[in-house]
């Protein structure tokens, strides 16, 4: 029985925030827990979701909003998912074409490093384009139920841009983002590492914002399992989560950086140059083709500041975005179901952490640059406070 | 006679797409279109206005199709993937075969099921075909390596062709390896000693 339990197939998309999963397997933390894990690289989030849902995968590296959407039955089949471990907080960036960057900079009132300044400037750029009868700007994101979709929308709406009326938001697979920016199919995009850096290195994009400048604490990817599988295999799950805890600590220990980036860079894992992955883990990014650098110590959080412990407030915030943009109805039941996807209790059962140092972390758990503090106890009022919304 | 369905196949593999198209035509579906290029995929699909969209799972553009579920200005009709709670077996068979189907609302389930079943069997036979080709290619390469190894042994040890082959076979048996593996070692060693 135990032998058959210990063999696991886990799906992932080759992105930097699969680091804890990849290191858990390739550094032997899962083997040390008696787990024989086969990692399967996938090409689309739909594939990861479907293979997890029907049981071809036991667990998966999954966009946090997909775990929630799947549990609520939004847009697809309803399959309850639980997230016992957070694979990453933050890690995305918004990149725009040189032409759009110049246009935004030209009309900005203030420093465009400030997302409110850049979003208001974007609104002015759009007003000018409309006056000239030009096509709407197009932005790429990775999936309808994605953090990237919500991050882009949150940023532009704060500056008065209606993401459904004033621009076109299109889904693009991450590997196609850079090419689409180069050939003008999109004017900008929001995506995770390494794709923003690839665009900057090719001289066809400027990183306008790290997402951590818009939302200092935004759950990004989770380790996802079917709720039923979690109930049926409690011991295996415990061991899997424990292995991830060790792996996340290993990734965050900067003395291991060379080993970690080499592991992640392998062709059957993320498959890009180790140096590009290193920029993401170090939070030191080249943001412009001329070599301008920008650094943030919270560009991508893998385990530090309690990032790996699933926080139901994050799930509530993501569900709030689904409601705000018309993807889900607002109800107390759905909110409660969304929150219970994130399972700190399963994390705590496996990992006996000393309490993480949360000093300096946002008091409402999110810390958004615009609007009122997040309050999931009155989601209707919170969403109602936004001028631009579909709900 | 029911009106014929408009079917779009999104597949970057032209051979598999052709096999699929042939199968659908044989089954009486005359409105079958193929899309190999995935740029501006949504716009092109909206222009074609299909009833059914078939896409291979190796195609990252599957995520683009998911956008059609979203209520937005651009959507003309709701689209649902061919799975609901009762269709677990169908979706498993489809994912196993590597194909995924999206249907535009309001179609009878039985009509779609026939199409999906046909796709699954065509995808599976294509996979078998590819495996056979792969095996044939490997066998051919192994034969080439054995011929080269025999040549090297014949020259180096002044052996006949039969004796060279017997030596390869004996060594393979003694070391529990395949003849092709031993032959590859001989070729590699000869190149190192050049």
How would you portray this structure in words?
The complex is a heterodimer of chains A (391) and B (194). Chain A is of the alpha/beta class and 391 residues long. Chain A has a domain at 2-88 and 218-272 and 307-313 and 324-357: 3-Layer(aba) Sandwich (D-Maltodextrin-Binding Protein, domain 2). Chain A has 18 helices and 13 strands. In chain A, the strands form 3 sheets. Chain A has a 6-stranded mixed beta sheet with strand order 2-1-3-10-4-13, sandwiched between helices. Chain A has a 5-stranded mixed beta sheet with strand order 7-6-8-5-9, sandwiched between helices. In chain A, strands 11-12 form a two-stranded antiparallel ribbon. In chain A, helix 7 packs across helix 8 and helix 9 (174-182) runs parallel beside helix 10. The longest helix of chain A is centred in the middle third of the chain and has 19 residues, at 234-252. The model of chain A has no long low-confidence stretch (mean pLDDT 94). A 5-stranded mixed beta sheet of chain B has the order 2-1-3-5-4. With 194 residues, chain B is α/β, with parallel strands linked by helices. Chain B starts with 5 loop residues before the first strand and ends with a helix. Helix content of chain B is 59%, strand content 12%. In chain B, 30% of the residues are buried. Chain B has 2 domains: 6-132, 3-Layer(aba) Sandwich (D-Maltodextrin-Binding Protein, domain 2); 136-193, Arc Repressor Mutant, subunit A, CATH 1.10.10. Chain B has helices spanning 14-26, 41-48, 62-66, 88-97, 109-157, 161-174, 179-193; strands at 6-10, 31-35, 52-56, 79-81, 99-104. Chain B is built from 7 helices and 5 strands, in the order βαβαβαβαβααα.
């Amino acid at each position: 029985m135990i032998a058959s339990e210990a063999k696991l197939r886990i799906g992932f998309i080759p992105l930097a925030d699969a680091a804890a999963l990849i290191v858990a397997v390739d550094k032997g933390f899962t083997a040390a827990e008696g787990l024989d894990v086969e990692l399967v690289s996938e090409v689309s989030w739909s594939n990861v979701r479907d293979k997890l849902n029907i049981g071809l995968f036991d667990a998966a590296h999954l966009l946090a909003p997909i775990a929630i959407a799947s549990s609520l039955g939004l847009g697809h089949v309803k399959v309850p998912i639980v997230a016992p471990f957070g694979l990453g907080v933050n890690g995305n960036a918004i990149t725009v074409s040189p032409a759009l960057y110049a246009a935004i900079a030209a009309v900005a009132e203030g420093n465009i490093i400030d997302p409110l300044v850049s979003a208001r400037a974007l609104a002015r750029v759009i007003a000018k384009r409309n006056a000239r009868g030009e096509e709407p700007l197009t932005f790429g994101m990775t999936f309808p139920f994605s953090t990237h979709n919500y991050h882009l929308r949150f940023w532009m709406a704060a500056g008065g841009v209606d993401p459904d009326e004033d621009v076109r938001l299109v889904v693009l697979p991450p590997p196609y983002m850079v090419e689409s920016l180069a050939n003008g199919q999109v004017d900008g995009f929001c995506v995770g590492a390494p794709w923003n850096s690839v665009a900057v290195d090719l001289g066809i994009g400027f990183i306008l914002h790290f997402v951590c400048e818009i939302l200092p604490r935004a759950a990004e990817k989770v380790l996802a399992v079917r709720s039923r599988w979690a109930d049926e295999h409690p011991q295996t799950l415990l061991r899997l989560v424990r292995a991830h805890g060790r792996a996340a600590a290993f990734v965050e220990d900067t003395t291991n950086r060379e080993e970690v980036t080499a592991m992640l860079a392998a062709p059957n894992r993320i498959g890009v140059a180790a140096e590009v992955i290193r920029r993401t883990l170090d939070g030191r990014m080249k943001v412009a083709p001329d070599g301008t650098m920008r650094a943030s110590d919270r560009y991508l959080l893998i385990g530090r500041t309690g990032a790996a412990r699933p926080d139901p407030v994050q799930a509530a915030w993501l569900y709030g975005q689904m409601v705000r943009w018309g993807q889900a109805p607002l109800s107390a039941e759905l909110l409660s179901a969304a929150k219970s996807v994130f399972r700190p209790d399963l994390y705590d059962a496996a990992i006996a952490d000393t309490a993480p140092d949360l000093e300096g972390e946002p008091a409402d758990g999110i810390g958004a640059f615009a609007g009122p503090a997040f309050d999931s106890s009155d989601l209707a009022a919170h969403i109602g406070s936004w001028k631009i919304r579909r709900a | 006679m029911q009106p014929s369905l408009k079917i779009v196949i999104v597949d970057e593999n032209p051979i598999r797409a052709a096999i699929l198209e042939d199968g659908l035509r044989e089954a009486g579906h005359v409105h079958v279109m193929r899309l190999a290029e995935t740029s501006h995929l949504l716009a092109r699909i909206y222009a074609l206005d299909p009833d059914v969209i078939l896409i291979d799972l190796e195609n990252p553009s599957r995520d683009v199709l998911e956008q059609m579920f979203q209520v937005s200005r651009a959507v003309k009709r709701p689209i649902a993937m061919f799975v609901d709670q009762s269709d677990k077996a169908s979706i498993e068979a489809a994912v196993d075969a590597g194909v995924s189907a999206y249907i535009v609302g309001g179609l009878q389930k039985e009509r779609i099921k026939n199409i999906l079943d046909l796709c699954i069997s065509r995808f599976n036979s294509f996979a078998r075909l590819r495996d056979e080709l792969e095996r044939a290619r490997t066998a051919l390469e192994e034969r080439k390596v054995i011929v080269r190894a025999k040549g090297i042994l014949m020259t180096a040890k002044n052996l006949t062709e039969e004796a060279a082959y017997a030596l390869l076979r004996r060594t393979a048996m003694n070391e529990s390896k395949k003849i092709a593996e031993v032959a590859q070692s001989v070729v590699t060693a000869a190149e190192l000693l050049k």
